[in-house]
Amino acid sequence: MKFNYIARTEKGNSQSGAIEATDKSSALDILQSKGLLILKITSAEKTSFFVKEFKFFQRIKRRDVFIFFRQLAILVDADVPLVQSLKILGDQEGNSQFKEIILEIAAKIDGGASFSKSLSDYPKLFSSFAVNLAKTGEISGGLKESLEYLAEHLEKEYYLISKVRGAMAYPGFILGAFAIAGILVMTMVIPNLTSILTESGQELPWSTKLVIFSSDVLRNYGWLLFLLLVGLSIFVWKYNQSKEGKAQIDAIKLKIPIFGKILQKTYLARLAESLSVLIKGGVSIVEALNISSDVVGNAVFAKIILQARDDVKIGKAISSSFENYEEIPPMFNQMIRTGEKTGKIESILGKLSVFYNKEVENVVNNLSQIIEPLLLILLGIAVAILVFAVFMPIYGLAGTI
Questions:
Q1: DSSP sequence for 316-350
Q2: pLDDT, block means (10 residues), the chain with 401 residues
Q3: Domain at 2-53: CATH architecture
Q4: How far apart are the C-alpha atoms of 130 and 103, rounded to whole Å?
Q5: Which residues lie below 8 Å from residue 214, measured CB to CB, with a gap of 6+?
Q6: Residue 156 and residue 357 in contact, taking contact as beta carbons nearer than 8 Å
Q7: Considering only CA atoms, which of 82, 160, 134 is closest in space to residue 126?
Q8: Contact 40, 19 (CB under 8 A)
Q9: Could you give the CA distance from residue 30 to residue 202 in angstroms, rounded to a whole number?
Q10: Per-domain residue ranges of the chain
Q11: Would the pTM of this model clear 0.70, i.e. be above it?
Q12: For 38-92, how does the pLDDT look when each residue is reduced to its tens digit (9 = 90+)?
């Protein structure tokens, strides 16, 4: 949003103007970084309650971020000054929240801050990997190349996540539809049949008793089950926010059939790519490992990487540290060992990144073909139990009439 201000310069001259910032505190920080003594600052915009609420819920998507870096790389390559490039991108940005952040970054750089330092002020939006890659580009003079690497890295992650979600959409829809149909049958159909079956006086099979019991529980305690499910979801979410909880949940993720292997390969691809890009950009191996532990996105792998960092500090090789963990495949570790011996570790890591990214893409592309047979078997068993439990006693009752 825009703020009007009146200030005094270091020479004692009065100055007034307007500035774009996300809030009043950020506007003050930007103006003070320019050496101004702020006398008065007020909001230049009167925003309605509904607009504020809309902006609060307006999320900045992954796609917005990698497009931002891609466009910024193009403008920098065209010799457009960085501040002007950011203002151009900010003015054309459709997401109002992201627009404010971009313009605020431009204002901070205009006030003397570096690009990487300005990015680091938004850790929820720009990871330590992005910040350090930008810093590397600033120091080496290859900011365009760093921005292109970053855009490509984020774009790969975005499309991979989109593929996984797309592959899970159909199975999720089928399971959801089956669950709704099952609840309707249990709460509306089974109760009407229960009275008929119990009044017949015949001995009911265990499957029928199980279905009747489940129907009674859903009808009488469905609200309690719903509250328990919501409470459990909140507990898991809160537990995942803690360091210990995230470590345990991340360890469980790696042991999930099918999906555990996909996640493992995804983390290996991230590790290889981040290390390759950072080392190629001139970042030390110790610092590259430290940054990669944040980028990888799994507490188990982060612990392994940080241990490798500590081992490297005392003179050990990365491969000698990785070989102690089953989460790191022998092939991955052997390739790193080869890179360390030949002095081409960044090149080897780049090839590992390409290999594991393709592995993940192949598994994701075949994910629906893997899940559909399992889904059909699961649904077939559920339907068979329901049919046997409901219709067999009815046929038996019809035979006695």
A1: --HHHHHTT-TTS-HHHHHHHHHHHHHT-HHHHHH
A2: 74 74 72 74 58 52 86 88 89 86 86 86 83 79 82 80 76 82 81 71 72 83 88 89 86 86 87 84 85 85 92 91 90 92 88 88 76 80 77 64 54
A3: Roll (3.10)
A4: 18
A5: 186
A6: yes
A7: 134
A8: no
A9: 82
A10: 2-53, 259-365
A11: no
A12: 767 777 655 444 444 444 445 788 888 888 988 998 998 888 888 889 989 988 8
Please, are residues 14 and 8 in contact by the beta-carbon 8 Å criterion?
yes
Q: What is the CATH number of domain 259-365?
A: 1.20.81.30
> What CA–CA distances, in Å, run from 23 to 26, 40, 42, 117, 191?
5, 15, 11, 19, 58
Residue 266 tokens read as: 């995804």
Helix axes 96-110, 24-33, angle to 10 degrees: 20
CA-wise closest residue to 312 among 273, 291, 284: 284
| C-alpha distances out from residue 74 to 65, 69, 147, Å | 15, 9, 9
Are 107 and 32 a contacting pair, CB within 8 Å? no
